Amino acid sequence: MKKESINIPFNKPFLTGRELDFIEDAVTDGKISGNGKYTKKCHDFFKKKYGFNKCLLTTSCTDALEMAAILTGIEPGDEVIMPSYTFVSTANAFVLRGADIRFVDSREDHPGMDEEKVEGLVNENTKGIVVVHYAGIACDMDKIMRIADEHDLYVVEDAAQAVNSFYTHADGRQRPLGGIGHLGTFSFHETKNVISGEGGMLVVNDDHFTERSEIVWEKGTNRSAFFRGEVDKYGWVDIGSSFLPSELNAAFLYAQLKNLKKIQAKRLAIWNRYHQELEQVCGRLNIRQPEIPDYATNNGHMYYLVCRDGKQRDALISYLKERDILSVFHYLSLHRSTFYEDKHDGRELPQSDNYSDCLVRLPFYYELTEEEQEYIIRTIHEFEEHFKAHHSHSQG
Amino acid sequence: MKKESINIPFNKPFLTGRELDFIEDAVTDGKISGNGKYTKKCHDFFKKKYGFNKCLLTTSCTDALEMAAILTGIEPGDEVIMPSYTFVSTANAFVLRGADIRFVDSREDHPGMDEEKVEGLVNENTKGIVVVHYAGIACDMDKIMRIADEHDLYVVEDAAQAVNSFYTHADGRQRPLGGIGHLGTFSFHETKNVISGEGGMLVVNDDHFTERSEIVWEKGTNRSAFFRGEVDKYGWVDIGSSFLPSELNAAFLYAQLKNLKKIQAKRLAIWNRYHQELEQVCGRLNIRQPEIPDYATNNGHMYYLVCRDGKQRDALISYLKERDILSVFHYLSLHRSTFYEDKHDGRELPQSDNYSDCLVRLPFYYELTEEEQEYIIRTIHEFEEHFKAHHSHSQG
């Protein structure tokens, strides 16, 4: 029998159908720079579907975070609290404005920030808290918002992975992630549920930022007010950048948004299949599967496993790779990074380090076929025998 | 006879043929986030055609300028010299890093910065000079580079409008704009000669910035070195942002670059026709046409007129608009902006103000037809009669 020609990447971008039509329409319609017809369609989609107050597409989630850092008025010497187990941009956006970062450890049961460890870091210099909804699974926002209220801090939700995911408050109200803190940021990078290659969005939940958010977005000018006829010419009124994406990206994204329901159904099916069919083998290998807290929903963004140690994780990644399946680890603790190690206050963050060493993400994309997923699951079962034969003795 | 149905925008984006094919190919090929196949093709195009050392596509020229501000190490208290008659981003990029801006007046014969007025502003805090090649026409780079050498300053060329434009040094060598200063920045905004909706590029001419430029571009990580196999994992090593554009934008741009020769020929034909056919009427109306210095080439980026005063300029714009032709003014002096007025050192910059008041840009895009251009030229001739009848008495 011929060797299986299956070759499974970790991620694969996809077309839902109308992406190229919409791009062509934008050109024909005479506008492919930012803030055109498709940008507005995307904004309207999010406002209508999730009840967001103000949405602004950006060129990346990084840029949305930079807008948040500017809007919250971060200055040198201000402190911002955030998890260490996150993407560099969560921190870099605030460091660019001069902030010192106080990194928080992850939860034992989840890579998200340990909410219980936040309040002890608050001091007179603290300006805000950035929560990261890892894998699209909500942090416990009631706890975070209470701390923020009590100490008068801004909350920015890094909801890069959390489109179409929700949090249920203690009082039973369910709200979309990105819509709870003062500001929320999303990503439409090609690894996300809905994509535009690179891309992101700022959601402004606190009205007091609304007017300035448009100015910062439009390079520090009052151009948006000008086009609404509120001022008779526009000029330089504030700091800002070119945060808005091309209509090419907005048109592509809009085609995806129109298929959000279908995309989400597919992704949840993939997630559930991994979860069910790997339960037994993970139990036997001491590998932890994701846990979804009662207050959180699952948006099928990512399927990860937490291996019992780094050696097992690396062995699994290698085993899959040799069989043409690309699984990948994720963040390296930022408090240990070359850039921040000597700026960090020295606290140990063992859970963050543990996820850096032990977490692995399985291939996950819209066009992953049942056959491909079956092959991945079967290969992980085969890994069990391989691992037990070669590595178990080292566990003593 | 029916009213002519002609309706001429100021600008119109265009497809040269393969833009959508290339985008589709990027998706099929499995990568639409940044730094993929088409990004490399664009980099290679520019390196080969213009001999640029290092190119990095960005999401906008604004972002390329922000990279320049980071790379040149701008800190609070540093001063940067640049023209007042420029886009806000030229200044904002440096202000975001804490710079104070010393604005320079424009030349009497050209909206570009008056090179003679630069050296007097240099002091111990001066870190760099940003030249803006207005309308794609070179500043006198020999003069600028001499000042920079003498005072140990960085030179950043804001070549947003200057793709495929050249400067001839006193010794006869001709070099592409953006390739002369330590760093150069380009724009591919939809109003430019080659476009990707929003988009830009940083060109690194001084080797000493090359390694760090890749890091800053990739969100402050050494990801580029990782993919070249130079380090075994990548992490956070510096400040930076998500400066790289999606492959959607790079694919679109690459299709345009393949047609650069055709685009340039068409644009120069449009420019030359405006120049020749408006010469007489401009002379009679005391309107100035663009002048191209001996050391500069013309890249057919823009056709502008400088009216004798603001009243005449506004009358011309209105007259054209009533006849469905959209002509537009350009920058407002940044030293007079709401944001910078009280930070400016108080010097009068009369030429900059004059261009703010009197300059008008005529419709200019790749698909402008001969018939449309004829209609614009004819309408400006008709304006002459109208203006003489209604406004000339006010000149006394």
Automatic annotation (TrEMBL), chains A, B:
The modification N6-(pyridoxal phosphate)lysine is found at K192. The keyword Flavoprotein does not apply. One of its GO terms (molecular function) is pyridoxal phosphate binding. Keywords: Pyridoxal phosphate. Coiled coil: none annotated. One of its GO terms (biological process) is polysaccharide biosynthetic process. The active site is at K192 (proton acceptor). InterPro entries: DegT/StrS_aminotransferase, PyrdxlP-dep_Trfase, PyrdxlP-dep_Trfase_major, PyrdxlP-dep_Trfase_small, WecE-like. It comes from the Bacteria. The keyword RNA-binding does not apply. Belongs to the DegT/DnrJ/EryC1 family. This is dTDP-4-amino-4,6-dideoxygalactose transaminase. It comes from Fodinibius roseus. The lineage of its organism: Bacteria, Pseudomonadati, Balneolota, Balneolia, Balneolales.
